[in-house]
Structures are given as structure tokens and as C-alpha cells.
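Students often ask why inverse folding is considered easier than folding. One informal answer: many sequences map to the same fold, so there is more than one right answer. In these notes we will look at a single instance of the problem. The structure comes first.
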């Protein structure tokens, strides 16, 4: 179990544990420009309960650690189980994280872009990558994964293409 302390800097916590941004956003603690402040100072300045924030961070960290400790040999699981895992874990993560990163990238450009021209390129590249990810997820969920599940349900070797898709999906799950 990881322990957070009031002397930890807000920005360092988010850099080491990005999901901590959820806690800081909920409490309106700036982890970008105000990231150099300690949790103690940020809580005190906002009139917040430091112990509550530290507990929320620890709980979220523990919850994430439990999810990440699930070791499954996907080669021994059904194709449908693998598809469900990818959609419910990996795609769900991207579907919640990409919009947040998009907002943060836009905010950083808005706040610091006038003094850092390179941020416009970072913003453009991130949003291009985000769009490619989103298109990839849609294609998997609407074309690729239904074919895998259909192949598994029919138990037919007629479609070598589907078997190859499954192999690629298995590889994708282990990345």
C-alpha cells in the first residue's frame, strides 16, 4: 500500500499516479500551475480537510493496485472473455482518460501557449493521436470484436482471418 503525506507536492503525486488528478479536480486543487504546493498547503489554502484528501488518494491507489494485480493467462480464457476484458478495462480506461488529457492539453496551451509556441504542436499531435485511438476503439468494438465472438460461437475454422484477428487481440491484451 502506498502512503501519501501532506508534504507530497501535488504535481509530483499526479506525475507518479495520474488518477490522483481525479481527487484533486474534485476538490478544485490545481495540480498544474499550483503543482509545486504540498498537499498540506493546498488543502489549507482551500479550507479542505487534508486527512480526507490523503485518504481518498490512498483508497484510489489501493483500488487501482487491486485491478492491476489480476494476472490472467488469456491464452487459457475464451475469446469472448478476452473481448470483454479489453472493452471493460482497456477501452474503458481510454474512454475516460483521453477526454481528461484532452482538456488538460487544451488548458496548458491556453494558459502557457503564448510563451511556449511548441505547445501548439503538442496540442495538435495529442488531439490527432486521440482521434486515432477513438477510431481504433470504435473499429474494434463494432467490427473486429463481434467477428471474434461470432467465430467463437460458431466453432468453425472456416475463417482463418478471424483466427488471425484473435491472435492479434491476444497480443493486444498482453501489451
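Output (designed amino acids):
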Amino acid at each position: 500500500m502506498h502512503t501519501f503525506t501532506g508534504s507530497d507536492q501535488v504535481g509530483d503525486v499526479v506525475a507518479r499516479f495520474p488518477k490522483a488528478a481525479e481527487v484533486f479536480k474534485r476538490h478544485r486543487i490545481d495540480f498544474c500551475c499550483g503543482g509545486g504546493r504540498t498537499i498540506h498547503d493546498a488543502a489549507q489554502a482551500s479550507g479542505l480537510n487534508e486527512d480526507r484528501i490523503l485518504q481518498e488518494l490512498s483508497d484510489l491507489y489501493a483500488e487501482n493496485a487491486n485491478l492491476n494485480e489480476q494476472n490472467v493467462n488469456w491464452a487459457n480464457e475464451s475469446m469472448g472473455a478476452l473481448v470483454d476484458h479489453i472493452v471493460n478495462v482497456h477501452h474503458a480506461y481510454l474512454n475516460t482518460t483521453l477526454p481528461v488529457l484532452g482538456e488538460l492539453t487544451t488548458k496548458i496551451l491556453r494558459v502557457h501557449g503564448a510563451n511556449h509556441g511548441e505547445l501548439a504542436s503538442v496540442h495538435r499531435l495529442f488531439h490527432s493521436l486521440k482521434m486515432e485511438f477513438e477510431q481504433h476503439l470504435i473499429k474494434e468494438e463494432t467490427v473486429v470484436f463481434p467477428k471474434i465472438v461470432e467465430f467463437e460461437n460458431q466453432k468453425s475454422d472456416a475463417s482463418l482471418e478471424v483466427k488471425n484477428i484473435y491472435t492479434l487481440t491476444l497480443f493486444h491484451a498482453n501489451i
